[in-house]
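hey can u check if this looks right to u? its 295 residues, i copy pasted from the old doc so theres a chance i mangled smth
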Amino acid sequence: MRSWSDFPRSWLRHAGEGLFSVLFPSECRICGLPLLNISRLPVCPECLAEIHVIRGRVCSICGERVLSSYAECDQDGMLRCPVCRRVDRPFLRAVGYGSYDGGLRELIHLLKYTGVRPAAGVLGRMLAEALVKLEPEFGTDKVLVVPVPLYKGKRRQRGFNQAELIARGALKNRVDERLLLATGILLRTRDTQSQIGLTSHQRRENMRGAFAVPSAAEVNGREVLLVDDVYTTGTTATECARVLRKAGAAKVWVATVARTLKLASKYEGFNPSEFRDLEEDIKAAQTDEIERLKL
């Protein structure tokens, strides 16, 4: 009679996973299909495989998608969107792993709103991959990794800060010893409402005075990497970077897992010259953002 040791390990693993799916039936929280693998993260491998890095030409400064009509590098070799050509942002660069839609958006929501903490490890690995673009720009001294903070009431209600969990997950996957997690550097001094559905003016007012650096001495002259889960309009990142620079930070970079490609993503794959209204839409959005950043 054959013993268990006679069976290949792969066969035993698949048999165990099959038995698991029968005894503990569960569905993928993204696609809804039955989960066949044993995992703390209720997401199937197929859905995770569908999450891709941002493709195409994006602004070297803010990460926004750049249309072909603007896709010319400046003299310094940087590709800038029309907004970043006209306005100096308080951060040097903002990078993101993927577009804030589809499976990546659902994965972030699993962490933030459902409390599925194992999602932070996967998101952290994605953030670590995005950080590769920034590492050549870091100096020789320690770089402070500062998660965008939650207000204390929301932190207490949620039980965690998703930006901090993602940052910790990223640092576990990066061997760069220059990166140092610093969770107490930046504080949110008041609660703010969700930015969803707000106008640019309302976003500015919502974030104005919402962040502070309690001890400027800890930031003065230091390089800072600001980490968050999503870069949408850039209002939060801009305000945080502004406060950090005002406190004395020498340089600030921004890294997020996801990036909303708000200007041109829905036109990807099309020739802009074929759509007369596209240029007007983009110019209006750019003018709005320029006015927001000037205030």
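The longest strand covers residues 223-231.
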